[in-house]
Amino acid sequence: MRKSGRPTMVDVAADAGVSLKTVSRVINGQPNVDAALIERVNASIARLGFHRNALAASLRSGSRDTIGFLAADLSNTFYLTVAAAVSTVAIGRGMQVIMASSEEDARSERTLALDLCQRRVGGLILVPAGDDQSYLGGEVAAGTPVVFLDRPGGGLDGDAVLIDNRGGAHAAAAELLRDGHERIALLFDSPSIFTMTERRQGFLDAFAEAGRTPDPALLVSDLHTPATARDAMERLLEAEHPPTAVFCANNRSTIGALEAILPRDADVAVTGFDDFELAQVLPRRIRIVDYDTAHLGTVAAEMLFARIDGDDSHPSHFLLPTHLVDRGGYIR
Amino acid sequence: MRKSGRPTMVDVAADAGVSLKTVSRVINGQPNVDAALIERVNASIARLGFHRNALAASLRSGSRDTIGFLAADLSNTFYLTVAAAVSTVAIGRGMQVIMASSEEDARSERTLALDLCQRRVGGLILVPAGDDQSYLGGEVAAGTPVVFLDRPGGGLDGDAVLIDNRGGAHAAAAELLRDGHERIALLFDSPSIFTMTERRQGFLDAFAEAGRTPDPALLVSDLHTPATARDAMERLLEAEHPPTAVFCANNRSTIGALEAILPRDADVAVTGFDDFELAQVLPRRIRIVDYDTAHLGTVAAEMLFARIDGDDSHPSHFLLPTHLVDRGGYIR
DNA sequence: CTGAAAGCGCTAACAG
DNA sequence: CTGTTAGCGCTTTCAG
């Protein structure tokens, strides 16, 4: 009967000598089927090695059984951790996750997001690479909810799940100021990145509140890698008036700063945004603006599923709290 | 015309005043369509905000446009890195990746793998959690290729992409022996894990080749976390005859061992399997059995696509080479 | 170059 | 409790 490889429900029905609909009922666990028939159908399913085609099922029923997660950079541990959390929530709901990465490219983001929509995902968690997501307007209107993650979306009204970047940076800088530091450096990446401007702003806010102004010579931007951050830190340390403290706006900057500070045992207090592996093993104590990365994914997934379940309240922004914690610092 | 939300190709055809088939041709870029009609159809597509339903397309055509990646533990950076590499290859082929995690549970693995097959993935990359994948026999026979990753599968003939665990551990131990170490400890996780028994075997092989036998008191197993590895290392250091070197069979063990060794500045040479973030910043030089994690994913994806493209040669095993490298060790 | 008809494998509606 | 009939949205024949 089966012309092309896999057995279908029609084959099972023929084999079991029942109707197609009875097979469907058995497979979907619907009530009101005679026990003997259930037995017979199950036997045929096993004998033929039948597996239901989920694509056909969802085409007909219109149900969605996957969600999309479009990261900005899947090679970044941060997004991967988020992705794992999203996946856990989804699987708990019997759904699976299609993941993709825009590689921080706005055009890729658009292509991939629309591609996911063509696959009729039930919803989309999106880390914006570009600043305009209005191209998703049609999909959202047609009932595919979108939740922005890590960065707010543009041109589209949607939920967003963000780290409290500004609050965390503010707390870090305020603490350094309270500790009496006069010269505090700031190492950060490109100001075109949302999280970077937020963290810088938190840093500056703390100065403003203390009635202070940071030395512009100590604010270094465009540090994309630990190596560039290390070089920048080395220059600061060798300058005439080196900083007594440094705030690193992401973990790549922190690692780079430490690569400059530790070998020369420089007397500089270090506070960094983002935790990292092995921070515990550092030979000196540093402060970290920490947060629960996985929770970001969990919250995003839960918001998305709430929308899928029909929540049509006004789009909201969730701010993930941060905490200042100690890392490293064992006695040598 | 559109009763339920999204416009369909029928709607586009009606709007453009052409047949359904013409719309299909335009959308799929098939030749032999009048330029004026293409124009008209594209205008209608834009006006209606049409997006093709990829599910319906692949149901009818039988084509597959996703592959499945089933990791053993998506919260582990290793699998996440692999996943990212797989995704990159897939997207380069216009396919997307559905990811899931069995959480090291054989039953979950089975459920999720079969679920992915029900979604008609074009192929499956699988990190076995259990030791029997014969349940996939039917799917493989029906044309869904499977590639095992990190661990060989059981009960099913399939390609496998593995790290050269034994060779890497062998090289590490041989080097320590050449360096004259008499007492070399081995810290590892459960022997029920494939990679662990392979690495232990490589370690033991090196001893055998040198005509030596390791002290059983220095071989510690079942270290699942850095904390337990740290405790084990502390006990070894405080014993009557402490080791002069330690080989840690995974990065959790390495981190734990360092947490014991660094604070007391113990004179123990450290070699670890698996690199880790921040290994560069360590205050002392250690040796690492390193390998290209992403490449593992790339190779697995390429093997899978070769199968999808019809390669029906005998299943093969790919062994990813390892390299001994220095980490850490800046001048204090 | 274009179109009408059939059907992928399943579920939904409505009968019996 | 069971079966028959449509039809999801698209691609694939096969005719014009």
From TrEMBL, chains A, B:
Keywords, in A-Z order: DNA-binding, Transcription, Transcription regulation
Listed InterPro entries: HTH_LacI, LacI/GalR-like_sensor, Lambda_DNA-bd_dom_sf, Peripla_BP_I
Any one Pfam family match given in the protein's UniProt record, by short name: Peripla_BP_3
Keyword match DNA-binding: yes
Domain HTH lacI-type stretches: 7-61
Name of protein: LacI family transcriptional regulator
Organism: Microbacterium wangchenii
